[in-house]
């Protein structure tokens, strides 16, 4: 039996087992995918003994993505740019890592808003945490010319901007009404709008009709931001698709099959999210 897992702290809320077990069953693979609670500071030790513990590989979630990056023998280029790893496997005793959050975000946009990248010169990204760092890198790599970053803590936005000279403009939240008319794509990477968190307050009146709106929050499935955008006729991309697509590369590495993100899988996760 091939085994994989997800490490994080806390870990009980992580939905990856639902996704991977769905695929294991669908493809008739003798395998399992479990949640492993690993305390802050414990990721490097766990990863170094991954094979001894019987795992072909693992996903890495909060708070271990940077520690996992540091613990790798080899890191794929996309993860080097972001400084964080969320998918790990071993090969001949060497630990190899990648970052599928970035590819998952882009693949989801490709799926939900085909052709989104044809006319995106200017993207506005809300937030400057780990997710924003990857998403900004991904957008620039796909040909977006300029990213405007707005974050509560300006210093974190400036740190991301320093990694992409001339491509990122840092603004304050209060500047957004003046910035939005020029946006082709608006992405929320903050936790605002998530169940139990503060709402995301941002009037969308100034957005042009062709602008695309995307949110990485997936609890609730349709955030107030996405509902408002859809009501105004904008094309939107919800966060659940990113979660599903980021799981694909790991499954492929560990279990040897490239799995499909199907409507049935989407419905399974959506039901689980609605049920909580
Ligand atoms: P992730 O890895 O998911 O990006 P993170 O690194 O904790 O998680 O980042 C969370 C993002 O949500 C940050 O941009 C954070 O803003 P700060 O950098 O100022 O902390 C943003 N965020 C969280 N709560 C917020 C709030 N109440 N108001 C504004 N922004 C908030």
Strand content: 15-25%
Low-confidence stretches: none
Give the H and E element order: EHEHEHEHEEHEHEHEHEEHEHHH
Lateral strand order in the biggest sheet: 2-1-3-5-6-4
Query: What's the end-to-end separation, in Å?
Result: 31 Å
State the helix count.
Answer: 12
Query: Nearest-angstrom radius of gyration?
Result: 19 Å
Question: Helix- and strand-based class?
Answer: alpha/beta
Bound molecules: 2'-monophosphoadenosine-5'-diphosphate
Number of strands: 12
Average pLDDT figure: 96
The biggest beta sheet, please?
Answer: 6 strands, mixed
Give the helix proportion (percent range). 25-40%
Q: What coarse outline follows from CA principal-axis ratios?
A: globular
Architecture overview:
By secondary structure, the chain is of the alpha/beta class. Helix content is 37%, strand content 20%. The protein is built from twelve helices and twelve strands. The chain has helices at 16-26, 43-48, 65-71, 77-82, 100-112, 130-141, 154-162, 176-179, 224-231, 240-246, 248-255, 263-274, and strands spanning 2-8, 31-37, 57-60, 74-75, 87-91, 94-98, 122-126, 146-150, 168-171, 185-188, 212-215, 235-237. Strands 2-1-3-5-6-4 form a six-stranded mixed sheet, with helices on both faces. Strand 1 (2-8), helix 1 (16-26) and strand 2 (31-37) form a beta-alpha-beta unit. The model has no long low-confidence stretch (mean pLDDT 96). 2'-monophosphoadenosine-5'-diphosphate binds at residues 127-132, 151-153, 156, 189-192, 198.
């Amino acid at each position: 039996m091939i085994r994989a897992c997800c490490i994080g702290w806390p870990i009980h809320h992580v939905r990856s087992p639902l996704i991977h077990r769905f695929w294991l069953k669908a493809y008739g693979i003798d395998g399992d995918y479990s949640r492993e609670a690993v305390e802050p500071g414990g990721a490097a030790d766990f990863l170094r003994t991954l094979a001894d513990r019987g795992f072909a590989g693992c996903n890495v979630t909060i708070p271990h993505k940077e520690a996992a990056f540091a613990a790798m023998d080899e890191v794929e280029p996309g993860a080097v740019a972001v400084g964080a790893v969320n998918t790990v496997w071993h090969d001949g005793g060497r630990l190899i890592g990648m970052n599928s959050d970035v590819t998952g975000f882009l693949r989801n946009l490709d799926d939900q808003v085909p052709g989104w990248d044809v006319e995106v010169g200017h993207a506005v990204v809300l937030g400057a945490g780990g997710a924003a760092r990857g998403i900004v890198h991904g957008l620039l790599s796909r040909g977006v010319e300029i990213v405007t970053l707005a974050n509560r803590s300006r210093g974190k936005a400036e740190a991301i901007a320093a990694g992409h000279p001339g491509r990122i403009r840092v603004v304050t939240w209060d500047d957004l009404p003046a910035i939005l008319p020029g946006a082709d794509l608006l992405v929320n990477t903050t936790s605002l709008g998530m169940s139990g968190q503060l709402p995301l307050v941002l009037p969308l009146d100034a957005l042009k009709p062709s602008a695309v709106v995307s949110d990485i929050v997936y609890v609730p499935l349709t955030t107030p931001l996405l509902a408002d955008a859809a009501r105004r006729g904008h094309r939107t991309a919800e966060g659940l698709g990113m979660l599903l697509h980021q799981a694909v590369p790991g499954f492929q590495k560990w279990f040897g099959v490239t799995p499909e993100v199907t409507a049935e899988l989407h419905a399974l996760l959506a039901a689980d999210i609605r049920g909580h």
